[in-house]
Amino acid sequence: MKTLHDLSLGTLDPSYCQADGSSNSAYAPRQGLPVLTQLLAARFAVEPSEVLVTAGASMGLTCAFLTCPTARPILLPSPGFPAYEAVLRLLGRDIISYNVDHDWEANVLQAIEQGAPAAVLLNSPGNPLGNVIADEQRRRVCDMARACDVALILDETYAGLEFFGSASTGPLLGPAEGVIRIGSFSKRFAQPGLRIGYVIADPKTCRQMTDINWVIAMSPCVSSQLAATDLLMAEIKDPARIKNTAGELEASAKLAIATLATHGIAVSIPKGGPLLWIELPGTQGAGAQLVAYCIEHAGVVVSPGNAFRHHGPPAIRCSYAIARHYIPAVFDRLGAALARWKSENSD
Q: What is the rounded distance in angstroms from the CA atom of residue 252 to the CA atom of residue 274?
């Protein structure tokens, strides 16, 4: 058989530039490196044809949104990750929301049954609240969405980081018609610089998303995909590794919360993920003012609650997933600043 030469892309052979001729500098296959897609397929009990590698989870979300019918809005969690709304606004899509704090499952099921959304997005463990969706809740929403021909998008960026005793066993496994799963190597593996995300969907949807992804961003660089392959291989060889990470995070969360409590700042422990959500009821002021206050008086950078479509009292989101020996000092400063804010800005 004659050697196949790909003349379809306008790239230069490294010899023209006296560059390294390593295959790591070439374009990756459209769907992702086969070694990585095969490992992801094995990890999530699906076929490789149901896996797409993307430039971060955000690109996976963008491709997922672009597969949804345009005549109906997308149902998003509130509070929720700011990129959801940002991407949908960029795409010119309409948005409706459900409140994560108040009977969210009943509201989502009702919206699906009434045929309101083109797609529903669930995020677990949640950003910013650290909420976790139980396996049974996820199953009920999946069943209702499938029956009503509504797409279900599962943002599983923090999946696997659920805390002990959670009603969730982690990411969805096996084929799931009508469900698009989004994951990332940035959070669970602490490798944001790789910019590697992945999508799991039925073969037809995966092919559609592969075409969209190739037009927008092509495939992530080979070296990043190879690094992600090594990380995933290590996790498959040592399944306890991710559980150990979740246990370490839970211990850090408890330490941060206990430190804040010494200043009268009450925070509920999250059920998973690396984030704390801190509300300051009985106070007033804009989110940007509170963030600036924390920087000035605590030397701590946090995110304003209103960035997450939160419309209640002043709130911030902060990560406690810093090196544990820093937690007492950093959260002591933050707690003192928040207590001072409360005294100066009470209703």
A: 9
